[in-house]
Amino acid sequence: MATTFMNVPIDPGYPLCEAPTDGCRGRQLPESERCLAHASTSERAAYFASLGSGADVDHSGTRISRADLSELRAAVTDAGTGRARLGKATFHKAVFTDSADFSRVDFTGRAVFADAEFHNRCDFTNAVFGKAARFTSVEFRRTQDDSATFRRTVFNETVDFREASFAAQAEFDQAVFEREALFQSSKFETVGHFSRCLFKGVAEFRNTVFEKAVFAGSSFEAARELGPIVGTQELNLVEARFHTAVTIKAAVPQLRCERTIWDSSASLLLRYATVHLEEASLVSPFAITHAPVPWGGTNPAEAALIAAHPTDSEYPKIASLRGVDATHVVLTDTDLTSCRFMGAFHLDQLQLRGRTRFAQPPTGWRFSWRRGPYRWTRRRTLAEEQYWRRLNWPEWPPHVPPSAVQNQPGTEDVAGLYRQLRKGLEDAKDEPGAADFYYGEMEMRRHDVVDTNGWVRWLLWLYWAVSGYGLRPSRAIAFLLTLMSASVLALALWGLPDDSPKAKTTGTLPVAGQQLQLTTDTPDPRLSLPYSQRVTGDRIGKAAPIVFNSVVFRSSGQSLTALGSWIEMTTRLVEPALLGLTVLAARGRVKR
């Protein structure tokens, strides 16, 4: 008896149960007009007696209880092995009202669970699917202490979970996927456990939604792409292994890749994720890139992610590179605000591309009795320096908690990190980008009381104060103008004489036929004016050209007092150096 929809018969493709119960969609048993749920006792007994190990079964659309499934298992159990064996098993649109126990079942034929519903716990632990297994659009509902368990399950052919819904916790730990594992557009409302799985074929998780996905210890032998995956908590790839080149697309708050092994190249396209790469093994190009737009446009899953983490930036954040060989690492449009570099190898070969974010010093002016008013120079800083500064200046933000920093790096260690990163940017011809790392390196050297002796630290302090290590042109210009103004004032007060001395020639008129001898003397410049008459417009006008000539290392030829000569020599020595530092700082900021 076919059902109808809007007076149009709907043929399910199999004979429907003719039980008086309205709406039963179960398939009739062989030699019966009723499904397994509505068959009489004698019909059920005859049906189970007809089965044997490896029998084909078809219970499409049938409501199956725990007792029904237990009798079915008993009927197909091999007496020699004690394992249930099914041939072609079809449970299309079946409804499992109680716990469904398929553990230690061998499916020797094609298994179809498409559109089935599991209202309680289902268990496929140690099951073996010899042929293709189809779980498309299956629904695993959530009840108390329930789960969909596929632990140590072996799928010898393609397994298809596309558009499946796991309201219950999904457990695939140690499962083996010999061929394709298809999870496109499936939804995991809680945790999806795939720890220590073996994916020998394609692992397809495109547009899959997780609350938390765990692939810890899994092995992907032929996976070319993983994702896009959207999760509200975590994607866990700890100690997983990727044997071939792979692209991972994910929008998750946390991506854990500690001790993950990448045997070939890998490209991670991420949104929102904080990536943990501690001790990951990278032997080929490895790229982490910000995915600018959601895959497939805005979707409810990513909206839920944003709602759960409203303050997070969509740019991927790198938490740590400790123990990573950065030779092949390329970071594009990433956030390194809290990234811990200590313990990484070959940081000078790390490639930073696009818009890379680093932590910034505190903003605004501050005051202390020891230093007076001060403010911090805007520049890119490492998390290790942030932590070290926090110990001495409370206004620095604690981007890295003390417990998260291994071995509490000192100034000499942080200087080494800045040096390696600076070299990498300089090799990439990005001198403006390298300037901040040079500044950070010099800052750490200036504060290093262990490996830097006192007079070198004093020179570094002077270099910092005058020009910001040759990187702050405004500071050098300010010092140059201040020194020029002071030099003009000093010359007006003590360097210019009252009047320019006039040469006086003296001699003796000779007798006819004798040689004329004359002597020209220039009197020493004298300064006897009172101080109230020394700073005038006329004297300032005479002093200014002397100072301007000194900036370009030229002599003015102006008559000066002895003290004025010393002032001029000092300005000719110092002011060109300040001008050179100004030019050097400006060049370092604009050169490419």
Total beta strand runs = 42
Average residue pLDDT: 84
How would you classify the helix and strand content by structural class? alpha/beta
Number of helices: 10
* Shape annotation: rod-shaped
Residue share in helix: 25-40%
Largest sheet geometry: 20 strands, parallel
Work out the radius of gyration: 41 Å
Runs with pLDDT <50, length 5+? 1-9
Strand content is 15-25%
Distance between the termini: 80 Å
Structure overview:
It is a single chain. The protein is of the alpha/beta class and 592 residues long. Helices cover 26% and strands 24% of the residues. It has 10 helices and 42 strands. The strands form 5 sheets. The chain has a 20-stranded parallel beta sheet that branches. A hairpin with a 3-residue loop joins strand 39 and strand 40 (372-375). Helix 6 (431-446) crosses helix 7. The chain is rod-shaped. Mean pLDDT is 84; it is low at 1-9.
Overview features:
26% helix; 592 residues; 42 strands; 16-stranded parallel β-sheet; alpha/beta; rod-shaped; single chain
Q: Strands, helices and their partners?
A:
Layout: E1 3-5, E2 8-10, H1 41-50, E3 55-58, E4 63-64, H2 66-76, E5 84-90, E6 95-96, E7 100-101, E8 105-107, E9 111-112, E10 117-118, E11 122-123, E12 128-129, E13 133-134, E14 139-140, E15 147-149, E16 154-155, E17 159-160, E18 165-166, E19 169-171, E20 176-177, E21 181-182, E22 187-193, E23 198-199, E24 203-204, E25 208-214, E26 219-220, E27 225-236, E28 241-242, E29 246-251, E30 254-256, E31 261-262, E32 266-271, E33 274-276, E34 281-282, E35 286-290, H3 300-308, E36 317-320, E37 329-332, E38 351-353, E39 365-368, E40 372-375, H4 383-390, H5 411-427, H6 431-446, H7 454-467, H8 473-495, E41 504-508, E42 517-521, H9 537-551, H10 562-590
Parallel strand pairs: 3-5, 4-6, 5-8, 5-9, 6-10, 7-11, 8-12, 9-13, 10-14, 11-15, 12-16, 13-17, 14-18, 15-19, 16-20, 17-21, 18-22, 19-22, 20-23, 21-24, 22-25, 23-26, 25-27, 26-28, 27-29, 27-30, 28-31, 29-32, 30-33, 31-34, 32-35, 33-36, 35-37, 37-38
Antiparallel strand pairs: 1-2, 39-40, 41-42
Helix pairs in contact: 5-6, 6-7, 8-9, 8-10, 9-10
